[in-house]
């Protein structure tokens, strides 16, 4: 399937990269989003840990049923699972855009198991216009604290 138009957006936020290397958290390297003529969206997300190891994840779906933000969030969760295989599975509960304090905000809810206990993780990022990127970063905001702890904690 060919996806058109396609865009690759590298992440150039040096502050985020420095924080990732210090804490063991994952940072966004970039993402690719494309749509087929049949309104199928495919998103690929590339992440990097503090040691420079890169991993990626992808998700696709019909835009009418799931929406581009949800597909971007799912791709991020698949990349997280590849980067941290010992962690329990993350499941996306929802993604939503809000208008607050004259700014667009993307918020996600993610379900996870921590030490056998179901946990709901929330992440929130203000969008400067690119809502897909904000959805990816909101997932990282929700999950990075858990990923940095490792599977035993």
Describe this protein's structure:
The radius of gyration is 15 Å and the shape is globular. The strands form 2 sheets. A 4-stranded antiparallel β-sheet has the order 1-2-3-4. The chain has a 3-stranded antiparallel β-sheet with strand order 5-6-7. It is built from 3 helices and 7 strands. Helices cover 29% and strands 42% of the residues. A hairpin with a 4-residue loop joins strand 2 (27-35) and strand 3 (40-48). It has helices at residues 14-23, 68-83, 131-149; strands at residues 6-10, 27-35, 40-48, 54-62, 91-100, 103-114, 117-127. It has one domain (6-149): Double Stranded RNA Binding Domain. It is of the alpha+beta class and 153 residues long. Helix 2 (68-83) packs parallel to helix 3 (131-149).
In short:
This protein is of the alpha+beta class and 153 residues long.
Produce the secondary structure layout.
Blueprint: E1 6-10, H1 14-23, E2 27-35, E3 40-48, E4 54-62, H2 68-83, E5 91-100, E6 103-114, E7 117-127, H3 131-149
Antiparallel strand pairs: 1-2, 2-3, 3-4, 5-6, 6-7
Helix pairs in contact: 2-3
């Amino acid at each position: 399937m060919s996806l058109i138009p396609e865009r690759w957006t590298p992440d150039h936020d040096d502050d985020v990269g420095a924080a990732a290397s210090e804490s063991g958290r994952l940072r966004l390297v970039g993402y690719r989003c494309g749509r087929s003529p049949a309104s199928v969206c495919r998103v690929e997300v590339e992440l990097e840990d503090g040691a420079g190891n890169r991993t990626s994840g992808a998700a696709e779906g019909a835009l009418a049923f799931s929406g581009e933000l949800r597909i971007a969030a799912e791709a991020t969760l698949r990349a997280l699972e590849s980067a941290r295989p010992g962690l329990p599975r993350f499941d996306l509960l929802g993604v939503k855009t809000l208008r607050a304090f004259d700014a667009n905000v993307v918020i996600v809810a993610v379900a996870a198991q921590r030490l056998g206990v179901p946990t709901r993780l929330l992440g929130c990022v203000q969008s400067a216009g690119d809502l897909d990127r904000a959805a990816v970063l909101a997932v990282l905001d929700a999950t990075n604290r858990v990923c940095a702890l490792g599977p035993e904690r």
